[in-house]
Every structure is written in structure tokens, then in C-alpha cells.
Amino acid sequence: QVQLVESGGGLVQAGGSLRLSCAASGTFFSINYMAWYRRAPGKQRELVAGITSAGSTHYADSVKGRFAISRDTYVNTVYLQMNSLKPEDTAVYYCKADFIPAPSDFWGQGTQVTVSS
Fold first, then answer.
1. Beta strand 30-39 pairing with 91-100
2. Fewest beta carbons less than 10 Å away: which of 42, 80, 91, 98?
3. Are 2 and 102 a contacting pair, CB within 8 Å?
4. Share of the chain above pLDDT 70, in %
5. pLDDT confidence of residue 80
6. Cβ atoms of 26 and 89 closer than 8 Å
7. Interatomic CA distance for residues 84 and 24, integer angstroms
8. Are 26 and 11 in contact (CB under 8 A)?
9. For 48-88, what is each residue's pLDDT tens digit?
10. Up-side HSE of residue 41: CA atoms within 13 Å toward CB?
11. Neighbours of 6 (CB within 10 A)
């Protein structure tokens, strides 16, 4: 059994920064791909950023240059550094991980990020 626990969300003013963390625990060999998604009120869930086991990253166009995803393999944790936050970044942010051997496509419970104007 595995678990993902997100932390670091909160309320911040526009232009501010937050750092989200997602720690994986449980029984698994390794983690392949990890990613952050978000769901804003009234909108569909969208990919924010992802990182492979080799360290390759990709970002949604809306966050490029402002957000940075990273991971620490030794503590099975993925981070999302969010800078220059905008009100439109307000959403519940979810961590996703593909565990090896299983399960793939496993989700955390989410953490709320609210950016005030």
C-alpha cells in the first residue's frame, strides 16, 4: 500500500511564493513519473508540471518561468516551487505518482492554494 501526502498550500498575495511538497510512503520499489495537477473552481483538472525519474521536466504554458518542479529521490518527495503567483493560480493542487511495480496513476488528497489580488 502506498500514500501521497501533499503540504505547503495556503493563502498568499499576488506576486508571492509558495512551495508545495508531496511525500510518498509505503511499499514500492521506486517511482517513475511524478506530477502536479490543479483544479480551479468550475474548471477541469489540468497538468501543471511533471518530472521523470531521469529528471526531465515539462510545464503548462501558463506556469512556465514561474513554477519549478523538482524531486528528491532519496526521500521520495516531489516539490513545486511557485513564484510570481497570480489569482488565476488559485486551485486545489494534486500530486500524482506512478509507482513501480504498482500502482500507477496514484493521487494525493490535494492541497488548497489561494492567491488574493
1. antiparallel
2. 42
3. no
4. 100
5. 98
6. no
7. 27
8. no
9. 999 999 999 999 999 999 999 999 999 999 999 999 999 99
10. 7
11. 22
Using an 8 Å Cβ cutoff, are 35 and 95 in contact? yes
Cell match 518561468: residue? 65
pLDDT for 60: 98
Q: Are 18 and 79 in contact (CB under 8 A)?
A: no
The x, y and z cell numbers of residue 83, run together, are: 513564484
Bin 75: left if φ > 0, else alpha if -120 < ψ < 50, else beta.
Answer: alpha
* 110 φ/ψ sector (left φ>0, alpha ψ -120 to 50, else beta): left
Q: How far apart are CA 92 and CA 52, in angstroms?
A: 22
